[in-house]
Amino acid sequence: MSTPKIGVIGAGIVGLAVARRLQQKLQADVTVVDKEDVVAAHQTGHNSNVVHSGVYYPPGSLKATLCRRGVGLLRDYCTQRGLPYDELGKVIVAVRPDELTRLNDLAKRAVDNGIPDTRVIDRAELREREPHVEGVSALLIPSTAVVSFPAIAREFARDITGAGGEIRLGRRVVGIAAGSTGVVITTDTEEMTFDHVVVCAGLQSSTIAEISGAPRDPEIIPFRGEYYELVASRSDLVRGLVYPVPDPRYPFLGVHFTRGVDGHVHVGPNAVPALAQEGYRWRDVELKQLWRSVSYPGMRRLARHHWRMGTSEIAGSVSKSVFLRRARDYIPELAPTDIVRAESGVRAQALKPDGNLVDDFVIHHRPGITLVRNAPSPAATASLAIAEHIVEVYDRSRP
């Protein structure tokens, strides 16, 4: 079987993991293409850097399966390469008695998903682990870790180039055409022909899919997550990771506290509509992309259904006092001077025409092209396992 020549669109952590796996498994001649001048420029470089345990995902789903597999692969990789992998542990905190049923449901799901050493703890043990956190009970997941996903992505990139692959940055894809002689990627600077192309385009996934001739759905709608962080003198308020009990009525998790490998403690994020596909600030507006989002039938239906939550999230965006009040549900002693604005991220949220969010990973396979249509959190955690999955499916399909 001849050496396959494969193009990967997207130099985030998933695209780089896929390219690296293609080299390892198939000895493929790989070229990664990205419009940015650096790897990990968007979602990979703007997230909480948490190695997710898989507690939120339905047992048997692609998310649950690949997340659990991904945790082990990522831990081993970081150990081998001397990259930080800090198991700080996580508590999912019930602040009201009416959250206890949902907390116990999560505890059962943790067992079903094979997450080790997870258990429900009482208020006294919660205060022992997190002295400044208030709650009636919590689910303890001691194996939850934090890393630097940008550092891991850069290491993946070194693996790729070290094995003879290419990473071509600063090249925007404007065309993809599959034909009898291969798949032609046209960028704003050149044309390249491959035997197969894998699209891991994150925030640009639905746009690139359309360019390739695939259906628009599911559509990627950008949501910005805005963070604060604790000032250095108050970072001891949080020892590890403190999360809320998710409310199934709402599509996003809510404010939580995350201590990073650098010792900084992030508070957030909220979730507000971004006004550009890569809109990290309110003033980042791209009218063509904005119209694409607001005119999408699913976005209008989502807004009608969740307008109260949306209004509340926007209030937390523009008002520090509103944001602080929500954070105080967990750490009542927080003062306005304890938190300062930090970097925002933008989440690529896949949406169906009926207004329902796409929850699981979605990977479509077309002749000559593999499209990663939805890879939200925990995609960074699961990146090495996603890569295994994609390469295995492609390998089985080869003539």
Automatic annotation (TrEMBL):
SUPFAM superfamilies xrefs: FAD/NAD(P)-binding domain
MF (Gene Ontology): (S)-2-hydroxyglutarate dehydrogenase activity
Keywords: FAD, Flavoprotein, Oxidoreductase
UniProt key word Flavoprotein: yes
Top-rank taxon, per record: Bacteria
Cofactor: FAD
Pfam families per record: DAO (PF01266)
Record's keyword annotation contains Repeat: no
Gene3D superfamilies for the chain: D-Amino Acid Oxidase, subunit A, domain 2, FAD/NAD(P)-binding domain
Domain annotation FAD dependent oxidoreductase: ranges: 6-392
A cellular component term, taken from the record's GO annotations: cytoplasm
PANTHER family according to UniProt: L-2-HYDROXYGLUTARATE DEHYDROGENASE, MITOCHONDRIAL
Family the entry assigns: Belongs to the L2HGDH family.
Protein name in UniProt: Hydroxyglutarate oxidase
Organism of derivation: Mycolicibacterium goodii (Mycobacterium goodii)
Lineage, top ranks: Bacteria, Bacillati, Actinomycetota, Actinomycetes, Mycobacteriales
